[in-house]
Amino acid sequence: MSERSAQERISAYLDGELSAAEQAEVERALEADPALMQLHDELGRMKQLLQSLPVVEPRRNLRESITRAIEREELVSNVEVAPSSTPNRTRRRSWVMWAAGASAVAAASVMLVIVNSGKQNRQPTVAQHERSAERESLEERTAEAAGMRMSVEAGTDAIEDGAVKPFVTSIEPAVKNRNDEQAAMMALEGRQGQQMLQLFPSVDEQLLPQLLEQLQQQGSIELVYTGPQDIVTHVGNELAKAGDNFKLSESHKQQDVPAKSLGVARDKLPAAPAGRAVPQRKEQQAADSQYATEKSTRKIDASGNTKLRALGRATDLAAGESPGFADSPPTIELRGTKEELAAQLSLLLKQPQVQLAIVPLTQMGGGGFGGGGELLGGFGLPMDLAESESDAAGLGKGGDTAAPETGKSAPAPTKKKNMAAKIAREEGRDNKQEGLDREQRMAEAARRRGKLAPQSGKNKRAGKNEGATATAKPADQPPLPRTTDRPLPARRSLRIRLVIEPGAASKSPRSKDAKTK
Amino acid sequence: MENDAQLIERSRDGDLTAFGQLVEKHQARLYHALVHWSGNHEDAEDIVQDTFVQAFQKLDSFQGRSAFFTWLYRIAFNLAVSRSRRKRPEQSLDHRRSELGEEVTSEDETAERRAMRAEQVDQVRQAIARLHEDHRAVLVLRELEGLCYETIGEILDLPPGTVRSRIHRARMQLRELLKEMLVEPLPD
Question: Is the ipTM of this complex over 0.90?
């Protein structure tokens, strides 16, 4: 037996890991060799030392941290598209329900929905949507009754061509505020032809590298930034302050829009007809609708490089006003180097209680809302969704819609449309002309498919009245709970578009830059 | 109190309360091992947290062939090793000392004795921190957790013979590092 082998045996002997025969052999060796005996003694003391190390207790709330972490991870994994996730669905769903019930955590949580754009554009079948919508409807009501917070669960489902397609099985709204609904909408929106949908429970600076990476890869990203009114306003102001040369662009002047916030011009709105009570909110919506169509452009020169452009209703962010952009948020475009944009992103991510969505590339409109490939009121939703069924009686009914990019007819998730209808109604979107065009396309698609009932006159009228498109709906779809009476929290949204301008060193006047554009 | 198998079964059905009980049951022991392996609270907490998150997510893959804590430790040490490989440069020993400064001490110890003991504990921890991570892992699992070679092998995916030789090498290194302390008998 070599020396090393003998020593190793002593070590194992001390651990009681030797057979009886080996033990006896070691004991004989120890008696015969004082050096081995010394080693034995020292190793024995060392064992004693190690085993007497005081127990280091974890901090008391480690368990809570762990469960919160599980909740976060689980929420993420619930909306990640994992082809093999089907077997876990039961546990996931149950867990999501639990997670939703943990309102203390959920209420304080900040939600980040990242909708990564995908290249595939396959649409789930109508049957799948209906099946999914049934589940959603049931779970939504259950969750709502329990006062739960919205959570999103996803899984996979086979589609007709044999491929696996992600789906969102539940939107459990606990949605006591509209923003959760919007988050749900955005989550659902990500289902449409997207490869991955992620839901993060918190927005913090750790997300910066991820956003920057995406920015770097795509050259630009567009965010929908929603949060408490004061925070979002603050952020808007801070972004505005980043510039030192705030001035209205040429396009703004041409429209002869007041230099200050267009909110001023609300005074000029037509008064409500005498004898007819018009809720303040409707009036506000009317104002928003009117001014949402008026584009104003502002640019800010931030350190000579970063430009800020506000599209939509003009809002005097720089002047510190609190513009009423809750219903039609302005788009702020920031252009600059990666480093400059990183600084702005960092500011965004520092804020508490905000939601942040990355609008998929395919959904990014050229000029914010109102342009081609538009998004619903700046909430990252395709206009299709906003336009379908916004009649008050039409909730919970499905129908077809047209794929915005291709113009081809394709079924859209019923849930999407229902929620879109709610939001469209609440937001008072005024996209009448586009709605009519799309209405025709969708109706045509429905007729071709022959699966859905023709459009009702009531819906049509309502759709026109509301400035949105009414579409054909299956008759047996149960209506979803209405949300119009839900209290609206003081939350606002900004759309922020970040565009990398490599090596931009534009010390040139902003007006000149605008003319060039 | 339900046993692990029952709690695991309930956790699989989505009962996070049950999983919370599993966390409660194993977190302290796991943390104790990891804090000595990593040398600081922060890393240990992170690893423990990640371990339970992964455990919950992979609960369906746990087949019960080994004890739950063995499976848990396996996740933990895999995470710990991969974490350490992408981690920042080694912290100074002083930092480690300050990190593990809070200790549970017996109430009947005198101040002088406590001081001596604290010094001794510091030295031992510093010595452990100097070991190679593979050696540290086997030693922590053996001496602090009291696990047998076979279980350590299961956790670290090593054959028992390798565990045995690694433990021996770890001890020999530690013996060198703690030479002075080991020559004299421990104070009573």
Answer: no
